[in-house]
Amino acid sequence: MSIDTLKAAIPDFAKDVRLNLSSMASDDSLSPVEKYGLMVACGIASRNAAVRQAMIDEAKPHIDETTMNAAKAAAAIMGMNNIYYRFTHLSGNKEFANMPAKLRMSVIGKPGVDKTVFELWSLAVSAINGCGKCINAHEDVLRHANVSNETIQTAVRYAAIIQSAAIALEAEAEVAA
Questions:
Q1: Contact predicate 122/2, CB 8 Å
Q2: CB-based burial of residue 87 (10 Å sphere; 0-12 exposed, 13-18 middle, 19+ buried)?
Q3: CA 100/CA 119 separation, integer angstroms
Q4: For labelling alongside 138, which of 70, 119, 150, 167 has CA 20 to 30 A away?
């Protein structure tokens, strides 16, 4: 499945989602590694099989297996970290924020791709998962690496578009049921 196939599956009530998918697919403001890794990481974070497969299939011709695996790792590790750190941030018991997480996350130190790129993917996945603490942490790393506001905004825009595709498909599935 490609983005074009995914767009064809998006129902008419979500025409804007189709248009946003088209603009994302034709966007060349990011490097191929940044762009297609974002698609993969966010597609996985969307938790929708059709969206995940479309993003992976779209990325395959553009990134190597190491990059693909790093994007998958960003989605997986943020799936864990976003829950844990959102809890420590939102809990009324502030002691949790000072306790060691005791979670293995060595992939962040050696992701298999440039660490700044991995941070960009992690920021986008954190936006999908709604973890403010992680969003702030990844944005801080990106700012210290001199990543532009436009690049950061583009990454989060990709996350929003990909998540909206998953929601549109789910909404249509509910209508059909």
A1: no
A2: middle
A3: 21
A4: 167
pLDDT in tens, 15-55: 999 999 999 999 999 999 999 999 999 999 999 999 999 99
Q: Which two tokens stand for residue 111?
A: 């992701």
Residues with active-site annotation: 131, 134
Q: At what angle do helices 115-129 and 65-90 cross, to 10 degrees?
A: 50
**C-alpha span between 120 and 146 (Å, rounded):** 12
As to burial, measured by CB atoms within 10 angstroms (0-12 exposed, 13-18 middle, 19+ buried), residue 13 is exposed
Residue 155 backbone class (left: φ over 0; alpha: ψ -120 to 50; beta: rest): alpha
Beta-carbon contacts of 153 under 8 Å, excluding residues fewer than 6 positions away, are none
User: What would the two tokens of residue 1 be?
Assistant: 């499945």
**CATH number of the structural domain spanning residue 119:** 1.20.1290.10
At residue 35, the pLDDT reads 98
Total domain count, the chain: 1
139 SS3 class: helix
Distance of CA 34 to the CA centre of its chain: 11
Q: Which domain holds residue 110?
A: 3-176
- From 90-94, 113-117, 161-165, 172-176, the region with the lowest mean pLDDT: 172-176
Q: What are phi and psi of 146, to 5 degrees?
A: 65, 30
